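Why do we bother with holo predictions? Because pocket geometry can differ from the apo form. Keep that in mind while you read this record for MRU.
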Amino acid sequence: MSSLADQAIVWQDNHLVLLDQRELPSDVCFIDCHEVADVIHAIRDMVVRGAPAIGVTAAFGVVLAARVRYQQSPGSWRQDIEQDLQDMLLARPTAVNLRWAIEKMRNEISNLPDGDPEPSLLSKAQTIHQEDILANKTLGDFGATLLTNESTVLTHCNAGALATGGYGTALGVIRSAYAQEKITAIYADETRPWFQGTRLTAWELLQDNIPVTLICDSAAASLMRQKKLAWVIVGADRVASNGDVANKIGTYSLAVMARQHNVKFMVAAPTSTIDMQIKSGDDIEIEERADYEITSLRDQPIGPDDAGVWNPVFDITPAEFVTALVTEKGVIKAPNSSKIEAIMKY
Ligand code: MRU
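The structure, written out:
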């Protein structure tokens, strides 16, 4: 394994081991998941986060669930496990990779012969994991072709190895372009309220000796105005069939600012993040999380208890703001329904 970020999701000694992303970068510690309930908590509590990483984790969660259900009742485990799949689906609502991975595993379950399901399901989960890494490397290289030499880029949230099976989507493009010496500066914004940019993206890039400059979220417009930014590069939690993008709160603001400053806006996501079942971003459920994520920092209150709080953790960027949607199947410039339909058939 090349870096600690590549150990975010590991199947080891018959169980799932997750890097606890809540504690990074000050502590590098791991959480053991032996049961599906452990996996659900880990997803809900952000031990593991990022759309593809949530999907991969859920696939391993199905393996743990099947082990218990089969031991309890070899005759009815296929019916019994449905409750676990439903519970996992509810852990976080916006990232479609969760549903995507559970559907893949459900399909595998329905095609299994009688007998212990664990070896086959484990093999399927491992394939989902490896294919995600491969997809990220492929889309990373595709995305890098869009950058010209001496590009400066800004990324939001963490769409890196930590947020995926490995390598990353937005950070996959940045890794590939940096390796090709096309990038002169990488900016990461802090990404309030959870600080995925400060805590995770900066840590992950520096682990691989890739220099990064942190900015406050509120510095983005000034950065675009003063530093000749070439691209904003982000990941996605769900892309609707018309190209609207759900991603970390603040993505939409960046897209609007980018348009104003003639900065190009790239969304890097595997096709497992594209939801062909919905027409537009209006159909995407936006997760709202607890007030304390805004009113406190590391358990220390920073705002009055009585303040009202609105904490949506994702937003929708309309497709018209997206210069390019980069997937492992290719690049879609100015994405729309027909272009997305074509690439999904490919
Ligand atoms: O709340 P999070 O940290 O799970 O949100 C993550 C993001 O918004 C990422 O940008 C997205 O999942 C893409 S990860 C490759």
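The chain is about 40% helix and 20% strand.
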